[in-house]
Amino acid sequence: MREGKKTTPKMYLQIRKMLLLGIVITLLLSLGVSFALNLIQESRSWDQTLSGVAQVVANSPLLVEDIHHPSATEYIRRAVRNVPSIDVFAVYDREGEPVAFYDLATGADDPSLLTPLGENVIAWFAEGNDVMLYNGEAPSGADRCAYAAVYSQDGELLGYTMAAIYMLSLRTMVLRMLCF
Fold first, then answer.
1. Are 180 and 173 in contact (CB under 8 A)?
2. b (16+ CB within 10 A) / e for 119-148
3. What's the CA gap between 145 and 34, in Å, rounded?
4. How far apart are CA 156 and CA 113, in angstroms?
5. CB count in 10 Å sphere of residue 176
6. Any bridge partners for residue 145, and if so which?
7. What is residue 130's three-state secondary structure?
């Protein structure tokens, strides 16, 4: 007859440690995947918000009637204050020169603080595109930008709008996700 091997308490302790380690690794992996998926979803949400605000303001009657309207700055100031995801907003004429601007963080609203739009942004809209997510020419230190074209009632290109957020806003969102 064969005698079975006796299990020692040391072996039970090793098995328990391995099971605990497996549970901890599984938990950390699931938390990591969940965090990554939340970041991707938040990024898409930011992009949709930026694009949507840029399009809505581009279609506003105030800008469609006259992109150089004196109350354009006040209009975009209200837009930035009322949409919590937007930090910077600007309006450019058809040549890409800034005509109205507001930065929520600094309160600056002088369009001369902005550089004109680059040729690649203007070319994008010349091809008939309506919205552009592009960070290459982000003004005032903004980190994520959406541009939209402003068209007149008869389809003539009048100018462009730009909505942007700061990296600080993105970091705040990440910290909020980590804490809650």
1. no
2. eebbebbeeeeebbebeebbbbebbbbbbb
3. 26
4. 27
5. 10
6. 164
7. coil
Q: Could you tell me where the DSSP H helices lie in 59-166?
A: 61-65, 72-82, 119-126
User: Tens place of pLDDT for every residue, the chain, 180 residues?
Assistant: 456 566 678 888 899 999 999 999 999 999 999 888 888 888 788 888 888 888 888 888 888 887 777 777 777 778 777 777 788 888 999 899 998 888 877 878 888 888 888 888 888 888 888 888 877 766 666 678 899 999 888 888 889 998 888 866 555 666 665 665
- Angstrom distance (rounded) from CA 76 to CA 81: 9
Other beta carbons less than 10 A from residue 161's beta carbon: 27
Query: How many residues are recorded in the chain?
Result: 180
Query: Between the CA of residue 161 and those of 44, 91, 133, 177, 178, what are the distances in Å?
Result: 20, 4, 12, 30, 33
- Six-digit token pair at 20? 């605990």
